[in-house]
């Protein structure tokens, strides 16, 4: 506390971002401030003046750091970036926000196409989203490819043979100059943008004009195509509910809370019509007031949103409204108003959004209850079937993968309370085993897992149970209640021998043979046969399949890495960047070998000397 008190005295009265760290140096909270001095000091008041969440935060603070900025808007941007990077424990954060997909229109390519991506980059492309449901996004993608026949191939080469997509009318065929003109392709791109931005009336007006022009020019097949396209867009427009007569573009945001979980619902209104809606789950909102929850959501959502509308309707006014509006205006490139929906049609619209948010939370709670009942039942049945002293809340599964003994790997997956705990998954590249020997490979993986786990537990005990820099990252300290080995008696025996030697033989372990789905116990002559419809067996099958998938994925990664090596890797002075540039320019090792020194030297990142080395090493003409 003496260190913190000294730092509090030296804090500047400037805008910036402050980072609170626990005693191990981990960032646990990131905040922004108009005045760092006043804002940070407000946390260190008498306990009676602080909310419970702030008290819990302050109790864990071991160090403080801060970064000054020139303005509050810059502080807001920096705060959002730091929260995304560090995901601090006490910040309100979007759950799983890193995985939301977007639709990307590659305007940075000569012939744009629509692809799915998991993040926004400043690359000249246009993005739409995020979508919280991958299924709804993919349905949209299928519709786009039917209505707006842009290319789907990754590379356009002149005079290549038209693909099946072109033959069935789902691609304009830019690979064939005679098939698709530049103007026609650009019109399709423009129409797709209008559709995704919810500007259906504008799109329909253009399509009707083109249909009339085609009919007048006696281009009846083209007119019929446009008629069908118009009808498809009209059907979609009819399903979109008109909720504003003012033809505004706006987002309507409402929320509902259940304990520490908050659902924020966003309705996307374009030209007065509801064109889409998404919901987002926030964690860490317990005890937070409405304005703080909304501000946290606005900063995280609109930092990645593909489109910022001119108006955003809210149930509460954020504390830093002016700063948020300035930041959003920068993101949009035009003015943005944050408005409270207090009365009339806007209040009715907000009530509908909030009702949808409550329904989402109710459905999530019901799903969790059903899943918990099924999982608890499976765990109880498994405990009874195996005669375990305690319920196996943490189950670890091991599997081995190799191809004729090549690049042997092992996987360890973890199920906590019947659900995958992917943060605890681990992979092992087998080091001591040559050739196909699953028994020895399993023994090595299990030994490395428990040896490291026992070391970590000893280090934690010496550090009073707190991980620190001296201990490093703790990966294996938590031991399982049950171990499942993929395989029969041989693999199980290899694992049990290691466990006994390391002093963890008291942990129950069983082999699960895939052929008959039988469980084998150490020293037992007969297998344990679970009923085919047993929830306990389903749980073990899921664990085993997950371990197999995880091992196979790692093995393929290593195998693919080895397969992508080429002679270029052995050329002095040719690293990964130059290798990639050469392959991108020439397409194959044969073409690189046939190229002249001048052609090689002209590739980005290459020099005359490096080109001569490539030529000398590869030979060629």
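Q: What amino acid sequence fits the structure above?
A:
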């Amino acid at each position: 506390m003496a260190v913190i008190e000294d730092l509090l005295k030296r804090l500047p009265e400037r805008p910036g971002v402050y980072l609170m760290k626990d005693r191990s140096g981990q960032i646990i909270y990131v905040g922004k401030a108009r005045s760092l001095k006043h804002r940070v000091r407000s946390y260190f008041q008498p306990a009676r003046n602080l909310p419970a969440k702030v008290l819990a935060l302050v109790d864990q603070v071991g160090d403080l750091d801060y970064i000054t900025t020139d303005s509050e808007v810059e502080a807001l941007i920096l705060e959002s970036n730091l929260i995304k990077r560090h995901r601090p424990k006490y910040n309100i954060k979007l759950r799983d926000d890193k995985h939301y997909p977007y639709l990307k229109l590659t305007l940075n390519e000569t012939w744009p196409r629509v692809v799915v991506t998991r993040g926004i980059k400043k690359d000249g492309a246009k993005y739409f989203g995020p979508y919280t449901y991958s299924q709804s996004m993919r349905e949209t993608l299928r519709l786009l490819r039917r209505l707006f026949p842009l290319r789907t191939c990754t590379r356009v080469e002149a005079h290549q043979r038209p693909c099946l997509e072109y033959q069935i009318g789902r691609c304009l065929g830019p690979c064939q100059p005679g098939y698709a003109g530049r103007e026609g392709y650009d019109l399709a791109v423009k129409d797709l943008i209008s559709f995704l931005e919810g500007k259906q009336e504008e799109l329909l007006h253009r399509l009707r004009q083109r249909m009339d022009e085609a009919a007048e020019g006696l281009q009846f097949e083209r007119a019929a195509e446009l008629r069908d396209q118009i009808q498809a867009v009209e059907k979609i427009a009819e399903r979109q509910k008109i909720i504003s007569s003012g033809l505004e573009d706006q987002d309507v945001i409402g929320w509902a809370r259940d304990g520490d979980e908050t659902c924020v619902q966003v309705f996307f209104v374009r030209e007065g019509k509801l064109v889409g809606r998404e919901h987002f789950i926030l964690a860490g909102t317990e005890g937070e007031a409405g304005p703080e929850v909304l501000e946290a959501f606005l900063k995280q959502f609109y930092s990645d949103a593909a489109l910022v509308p001119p108006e955003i309707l809210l149930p509460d006014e954020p504390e830093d409204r002016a700063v948020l509006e300035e930041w959003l205006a920068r993101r949009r490139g035009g003015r943005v108003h944050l408005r409270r929906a207090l009365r009339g049609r806007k209040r009715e619209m907000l009530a509908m959004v909030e009702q949808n948010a409550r329904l989402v939370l109710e459905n999530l709670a019901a799903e969790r209850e059903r899943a918990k009942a099924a999982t608890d039942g499976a765990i109880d049945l498994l405990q009874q079937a195996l005669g375990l002293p305690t319920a196996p809340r943490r189950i670890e599964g091991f599997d081995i993968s190799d191809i004729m003994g090549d690049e042997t790997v092992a996987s360890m997956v973890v199920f906590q309370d019947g659900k995958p705990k992917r943060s605890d998954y681990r992979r092992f590249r087998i080091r001591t085993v040559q050739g196909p020997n699953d028994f020895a490979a399993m023994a090595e993986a299990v030994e490395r897992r428990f040896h490291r786990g026992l070391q970590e537990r000893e280090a934690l005990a010496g550090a009073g149970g707190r991980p620190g820099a001296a201990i490093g990252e703790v990966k294996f300290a938590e031991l399982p209640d049950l171990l499942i080995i993929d395989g029969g008696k041989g693999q199980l025996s290899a694992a049990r021998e290691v466990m006994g030697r390391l002093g963890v033989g008291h942990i129950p372990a069983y082999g699960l043979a895939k052929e008959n789905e039988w469980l084998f116990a150490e020293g037992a002559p007969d297998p344990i046969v679970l009923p085919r419809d047993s929830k306990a067996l389903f749980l073990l099958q899921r664990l085993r399949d997950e371990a197999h998938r995880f091992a196979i994925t790692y093995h393929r990664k290593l195998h693919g890495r080895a397969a992508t090596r080429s002679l270029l890797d052995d050329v002095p002075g040719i690293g990964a960047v130059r290798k990639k540039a050469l392959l991108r320019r020439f397409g194959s090792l044969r073409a690189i070998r046939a190229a002249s020194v001048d052609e090689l030297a002209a590739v980005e990142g290459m020099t005359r000397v490096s080109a001569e080395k490539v030529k000398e090493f590869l030979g060629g003409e």
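Q: And what stands out in the fold?
A: Residues 99-197 form one domain.
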